[in-house]
């Protein structure tokens, strides 16, 4: 019989397989504002990838970050557990395949992770994916073996404090001598990990499962496995960014970070 985590992992896989086409169409070659404004500038600066370095792209989706890294001259091994998304990634790579190795692999499975090769990677990257994984403990346990000494792991998350599955976007009007419209976020769950179904894209055929964890969960998991944190950026949309929907993330929430990017480094 499958454990609860295995069941949730299976449901997650089925959702990503079903949603792959819509996801690929939405992200395209260049990604959306969330990626380009919030994630990529901080990922690129914290990863600081050198040409010819070997980077592991974890849960690469349709290969958005994989292509950027390959364009910067890196060798990239990229994986995702959705075979459909890896097919889209292969198509989008087209003639840039030579420095990229794309694989179908489950990040919750230690032996699959070990098959990537020990001591092979200068750095690992994971954009907006750890909260999509039913279990991140195997990944944090195995990553120190896959990385070279003092290797780095850079990952982005929807900000666990402000942008989790319990978050509600609120707009209110107040009068303090002038009429003001105030945008805020209300959060009702944070401390205890939980999972909840949700829609990353409004038109996706099947809800996916979000795995919400407090910040201390991620940080302590890193510390227990030999990492320190040596880079950290909280990312909010600049106030001039147009709203995607009236209450969606955009410039109205410029004081609230929708994402964060962390760099962890092995101490040995
Ligand atoms: C929000 S998408 C991000 C994709 C990509 N990193 C990007 O920036 O476009 C999350 C990805 O996590 C993948 N994923 C979730 N659980 C996984 C697992 N256990 N192993 C590998 N990939 C997984 C999904 O298939 C999906 O492609």
Give an account of the 3D structure.
The protein is built from seven helices and eleven strands. The protein has 268 residues and is of the alpha/beta class. Helix 1 runs parallel beside helix 4. It has one domain (4-160, 189-242, 256-266): 3-Layer(aba) Sandwich (Rossmann fold). It is globular. Strand 4, helix 6 (137-146) and strand 5 form a beta-alpha-beta unit. The structure holds S-adenosylmethionine. The site of S-adenosylmethionine has 22 residues, from helix 1 and helix 3.
The poorly predicted ranges are: none
Outline, from the CA principal axes?
Answer: globular
What is the fold named in CATH at topology level?
Answer: Rossmann fold
The total count of helices amounts to 7
How many strands, what sense, and barrel or not for the largest sheet? Answer: 7 strands, mixed
CATH architecture assignment: 3-Layer(aba) Sandwich
Strand order of the largest sheet: 3-2-1-4-5-11-10
- Give the helix/strand class: alpha/beta
Specify Rg, calculated over alpha carbons.
Answer: 19 Å
Number of domains: 1
Helix amount: 25-40%
The CATH H-level superfamily is Vaccinia Virus protein VP39
Classify the beta-strand content into a percent band. Answer: 25-35%
The H/E string reads: HHEHEHEHEHEEEEEHEE
Number of strands: 11
The kinds of small molecule bound in this structure are: S-adenosylmethionine
């Amino acid at each position: 019989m499958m454990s609860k985590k295995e069941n949730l992992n299976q449901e997650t896989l089925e959702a990503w397989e079903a949603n792959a086409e819509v996801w690929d169409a939405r992200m395209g070659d260049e990604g959306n504002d969330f990626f380009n404004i919030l994630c990529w500038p901080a990922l690129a600066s914290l990863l600081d990838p050198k040409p010819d370095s070997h980077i592991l792209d974890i849960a690469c989706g349709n290969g958005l970050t994989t292509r950027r890294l390959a364009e910067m001259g890196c060798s990239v091994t990229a994986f995702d557990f959705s075979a459909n998304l890896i097919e889209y990634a292969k198509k989008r790579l087209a003639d840039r395949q030579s420095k990229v190795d794309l694989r179908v692999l489950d990040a919750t499975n230690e032996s699959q992770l070990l098959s990537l090769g020990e001591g092979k990677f200068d750095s690992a990257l994971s954009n907006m994916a750890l909260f999509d994984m039913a279990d991140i403990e195997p990944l944090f346990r195995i990553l120190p073996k896959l990385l070279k000494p003092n290797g780095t792991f850079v990952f982005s998350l929807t900000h666990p404090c402000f942008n989790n599955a319990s978050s509600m976007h609120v707009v209110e009007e107040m009068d303090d001598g002038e009429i003001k419209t105030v945008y805020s976020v209300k959060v009702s769950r944070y401390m205890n990990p939980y999972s909840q179904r949700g829609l990353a894209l409004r038109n996706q055929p099947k809800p996916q499962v979000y795995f919400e964890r407090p910040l201390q969960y991620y940080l302590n998991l890193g510390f227990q496995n030999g990492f320190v944190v040596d880079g950290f950026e909280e990312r909010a949309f600049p106030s001039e960014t147009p709203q995607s929907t009236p209450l969606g993330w955009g410039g109205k929430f410029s004081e609230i970070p929708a994402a964060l990017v962390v760099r962890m480094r092995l101490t040995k």
